[in-house]
């Protein structure tokens, strides 16, 4: 039997608008895994939060977190690449000077500059920064104490979105760092040359799954590399237009069980 590796983003993809994995989708993924196929979440969330969702689908599920900086099986992390410390320090200094909210992630801790954004305190969005600990790093000395633990980061602008364009242009001059976006109001900070596609490739090779047998689902810019790399790249109905143009298929929206409908038809 040809084995497939199914990789899905979380927010706006696997999760519905209530931040839940739809029951029919979960049942089908479990059925496919029982038949010998593989499943992995592939998200920008930090490892702790991503792993919780992966295990809620199946205890044998794989976890790709921090936009490809981390990949893990049930036995633990087997792929981990952190962002260069010098780049993180420069980004921290710029964000503090510009008074822009920034978050830096280890595997289980969120370090944040400024106040936690209001929407991260609300029930609908607080899971996006779900972690064991949240640590304020408004003091530079505190930041430097923890920088060795930081794998990747996120810059958020809630009010003047146009500021992000100029800020990203400035930060992209830095060496050894890479930027993507998972939402119109953020900038994702990653190690150079790392994205979800790198981790998906690493996982597929580990499992012996052919590239043409990788099915990837996503909805945002940070899913683009994964969608292009997969043999079968699927954009959600709610995905941005750039992703839809690059995908092999477009399915229903995340709130209409797009993953379930595509996989049910495929298998």
List keywords for this structure.
Cof; 11 helices; magnesium ion binding; phosphatase activity; 267 residues; Hypothetical Protein, Haloacid Dehalogenase-like Hydrolase, Chain: A, domain 2; alpha/beta; 2 domains; eight-stranded mixed β-sheet; Rossmann fold; single chain
Give a brief outline of the structure.
By secondary structure, this protein is an alpha/beta fold. The chain has helices at 10-14, 23-34, 47-57, 85-98, 118-121, 140-146, 162-171, 196-207, 224-229, 241-246, 258-266, and strands at 5-8, 38-42, 62-65, 70-73, 76-80, 101-105, 109-113, 133-136, 152-156, 177-180, 186-191, 214-218, 232-235, 249-250.
Query: Helix content range of the residues, please?
Result: 25-40%
The span between the termini is: 12 Å
Which residues form runs of ≥5 with pLDDT under 50?
none
Report on the biggest sheet.
Answer: 8 strands, mixed
Q: Tell me the CATH architecture of the largest domain.
A: 3-Layer(aba) Sandwich
Structural class category? alpha/beta
CATH superfamily of the largest domain: HAD superfamily/HAD-like
The total of helices stands at 11
The name CATH uses for the topology of the largest domain is Rossmann fold
* CATH level 1 name of the largest domain: Alpha Beta
For the CA atoms, what is the radius of gyration? 18 Å
Please tally the β strands and state the result.
Answer: 14
Topology as a string of helices (H) and strands (E):
EHHEHEEEHEEHEHEHEEHEHEHEH
Q: In the residues, how many domains can be counted?
A: 2
Q: What gross morphology would you assign? A: globular
- What's the arrangement of strands in the largest beta sheet? 5-4-3-2-1-12-13-14
């Amino acid at each position: 039997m040809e084995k497939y590796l199914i990789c899905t983003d979380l927010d706006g993809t696997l999760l519905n608008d209530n931040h839940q994995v739809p029951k029919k989708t979960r049942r089908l993924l479990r059925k496919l895994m029982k038949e010998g196929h593989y499943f992995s979440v592939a998200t920008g969330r930090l490892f702790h939060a991503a792993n919780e969702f992966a295990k809620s689908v199946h205890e044998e599920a794989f976890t790709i977190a921090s936009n490809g900086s981390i990949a893990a099986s049930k036995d633990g992390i087997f792929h981990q690449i952190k962002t260069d410390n010098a780049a993180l320090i420069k980004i921290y200094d710029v964000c503090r000077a510009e008074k822009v909210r920034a978050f830096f992630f280890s595997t289980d801790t969120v370090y944040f500059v400024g106040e936690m954004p209001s929407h991260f305190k609300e029930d609908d969005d607080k899971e996006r920064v779900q972690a064991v600990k949240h640590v304020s790093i408004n003091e530079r000395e505190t930041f430097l104490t923890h920088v060795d633990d930081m794998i990747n980061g996120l810059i958020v602008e809630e009010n003047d979105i146009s500021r992000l364009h100029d800020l990203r242009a400035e930060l992209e001059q830095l060496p050894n760092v890479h930027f993507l976006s998972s939402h119109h109001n953020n900038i994702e900070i990653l190690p150079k040359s790392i994205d979800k596609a790198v981790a998906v490739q690493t996982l597929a090779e580990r499992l012996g799954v052919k590239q043409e047998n990788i099915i990837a689902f996503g909805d945002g810019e940070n899913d683009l590399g994964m969608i292009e790399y997969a043999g079968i790249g699927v954009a959600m109905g709610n995905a941005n237009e750039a992703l839809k143009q690059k995908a092999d298929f477009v399915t229903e929206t995340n709130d209409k069980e797009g993953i379930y409908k595509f996989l049910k038809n495929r298998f």
